[in-house]
Structure formats: C-alpha cells, structure tokens
Amino acid sequence: MNSDEEPSGTPSETRLPGLGLKLDEQLEGIAQQLRELARAKGRLQGLLSAVLAIGGDLDLPAVLHRIVTTAMDLAGARYGALGVLAPSGDHLEQFITAGLTEEERAALAGIDFPHGRGVLGHLIHHPEPLRVEDIPSHPASVGFPPGHPPMRTLLGVAITVRGEIYGDLYLSERGDGRPFDEDDEAIVRALAGAAGIAIENARLFGYMRDSAEQFQRLLLPTLPDLTPFSGAAVYRTAAEPASVGGDWYDAVVLPDRACAAVIGDVVGHDLHAAAAMAQARNMLRALLYDRQTPPSSVLTQLDHTVHAITDLPVTTACLVRIEPTGDGWTLHWSTAGHLPPLILTPDGSARYLHAEPGIPLGVDPDIHRPDHTHELPPGAIVLLFSDGLVEHPDHPIDDRLNALADLAAAHATQPLDALVHALADHHPSDGHDDIAILAIRTPGEE
C-alpha cells in the first residue's frame, strides 16, 4: 500500500459535507425541541399564574370574568365567554363576555344574550371539548344575530363544579388567525379544572357571608314604634368570610316619655362577639326600663352586671337619652370609649358632640363615667354609628369624620331610612369592618 493512499475504512473528504449536513439537521432538531420545551415551560408557568389569579378573588362575578380573560390570555384568543347553565342544565341563564370593543357592544345593544342554541348548545348537550375551524359550516350552527362580530373558530370546554356541569367556557379567534390546536385545548381544559374549584370557593364564601349577615341581623332588633320620635337603623356586615361582628344598636321610648338609644361595638368578629353583643343589648334594655337614671349610671351598672355574670369582651358604646324640656329637647349622653354623636339640625348644620369619653366596658367597672347634655331643637337628628363607618387606614380619623358630617348634612332632609342607607352606601371608610348606624329625630318637624 502506498503511504499516500488513504487507509481502509477512513472517511474520504467527499463524505464530510454529508456528515456536516446531518449534524446541522440534528442540531436544528435539538434546537426545535428546546424551543418546544421552553414554550411548554412558558405555558405551564402561565397556567400556574392563571390558577393563582382566578383563585385570588372570592367575589363570584369577578371570578367568572377573570376565568374568561385568563383563558383568552393562555390561548391567545381575541374573544371569550362563559355561559352559566340554568338549574335544569338545558340552557344558559348567564353569559359573561370579554374581548368585545365598545363599538361591538353598542352594535349588540338590545339583543338578548345567547341561551345555548346552535354550536353553543352542542357543547351543552355534548360536554366534551369542542374545536371548530369554521363556525358557519358546523352542522349545529344557526348563525349570528345582527351586529355580532364575525367569528370563525371556536374552542369550547365545560367547567365542572362538584361533579356537575356548571357552565361552558368559549373562546374564539386566535390572534394569529390559526384554528385552536390540541395544545390550546389541553391548557384550557387544565384551567377549567382549576376554575371549578375557584367557583366553588367563591360560592361557599358568598353563602357563608350571606349566612353570617343573616345571623347578625337576627340578633339585632327591629326598632319599635318610637312615637313621637322617629328612628331608623341600618347594619352592613364586614367584607370578610363568615364575619359575624359585634356591632349592635337599640332604641326605645321609656315610661317617662324619654327616648333612649344606644350603639355599641364588641371587640372581635366571631360567634363569641355576637353572643356577647346580644347579652349586652338585652341587659341594657332591662336596665333602661328599670332605672330612670343618667346614661353614665346605666352604663356603669351594665359594666358591673356583665363583669359579674359573664365574660364580656371589651366593648365600646354610646348611650343617649332624649328628654322633653319646655319647647325643645335635651340630649343626655355618656360614651364608653365610643365615637361621639353627630347632631344634624333643621338649619343644615352638622356638629359632633365632642366631650370627655369614658373607658370602654369590660375594663374597670369602678372608674367614674362622665355625663354630658346638649339642647336639641325640634326636628333635630341624633346620629349614632360604629367606627366601621369612618375608619380608613389611609386617612386620619378626623378627616373621615368630617367627610361623614358633610355626607350626612347633604342627606339630612331625606326621610331617616333614606338617610341611614345613603350613609351606609357611600361611607367614607375602607369597608373592612361592620357598619351600624342609628338615627333618631326629635318631634316637631317632618
């Protein structure tokens, strides 16, 4: 063998380009796999973030809308909707949409929302994932109503809550114009599974919140006939799950023609606070009937009584007694660590009766409690309220009290029931505590 000859089995230079091409293909394949892995990882991260997002709210309407918008983001869809099934399960009773422009919404004004006919109805009766590349060509299609934006593609997935179909999630029109694919279906199905849990949590929260508020209202009295006075009260529960609070109020006309009214707040938001509130209110009413004494004496006796027979948490209260004097009325009041009364007069003024406060109930029943008096004209309103009406972590309490005074003055000419509801609806607080409001108007003016 010539030394210049190539050894047997050694690749020739003419074969090297082929090997290079093959290596390039392998590298491109690896790169493609890496891109797919990165895309899958990105989608997985997006799904995890989406699950956290829809589970971060407990208000059911907000949860439903967030499910729609989150699904749109994951699949890159322009339009999205969630149809909630009626109890019968054969049609939609609610339809939440997202993605429509203002112009598109205006074009659909006056047109009822879909109730589950056509392609949407197909998913109701066949709750398997549905991908449609051309909606008008689908056998179940019945067309769109006038003004509806054109839609060609559809991805539909059922949402199940506690093993039963709750509704259907619909997406239409991918941003890149392509039909929805298997990856879109898989990630939206995964989202729908998490959505069922989020919906159930929101429904449970709503049930607990409503039950807590109903329980609280049962503990609070219906104001009796206060003639010749007039009165109104309102209670709003805190925006917390199963939050049973300790806010309470009461008003009664006493045998000596005076009107007694009280508002209080037991520290805590649980059943213990609610039970303590009910005990304190009942004992106070008995003391009011039994003793025609200044409010400070009644509060002191209440403090001694609850200290002796029950474990009452720290409680703030403001007790007033409105007595006839000559042509007007005299307000006697004493506070137990509570906010002062707000007086609204027929001339349009609003004034807080700032005075020396006593200590809260449940601290030391032997400490002296001060009494105060203030003359009231006919038609004056005595407004008592709990701190949930004015407390806001971002504002000083004096600022919120001033805001309440302005709000009350603006509504003072309304009937008392309208007044207290206006204050509860437009309260200057952050809404994270119970709100109780009690208003008493002296006789003499409507």
Question: What does this protein structure show overall?
Answer:
It contains 9 helices and 15 strands. It is an alpha+beta fold and about 450 residues long. β4 and β5 form a beta hairpin. α1 (about 15-55) runs antiparallel to α2 (about 60-75) and α6 crosses α7. The longest helix is centred in the N-terminal third of the chain and has 39 residues, at about 15-55. The radius of gyration is 34 Å and the shape is elongated. The N and C termini lie far apart (about 125 Å). The relative contact order is 0.09. The model is unreliable at about 1-15 (pLDDT under 50).
Strand order of the largest sheet: 2-1-5-4-3
Q: What order do the helices and strands follow?
A: HHEEHHEEEHEEEHHEEEEEEHHE
- Helix run count: 9
- Low-pLDDT windows of residues: 1-15
Q: Using only CA atoms, what is the Rg?
A: 34 Å
Q: What characteristic shape results from the CA principal axes?
A: elongated
Strand percentage: 15-25%
Q: Structural class per helix/strand content? A: alpha+beta
Main beta sheet strand tally, sense and closure: 5 strands, antiparallel
* Portion in helices: 25-40%
Q: Count the strands?
A: 15
- Termini separation comes to 127 Å
Q: Kindly report the average pLDDT value.
A: 83
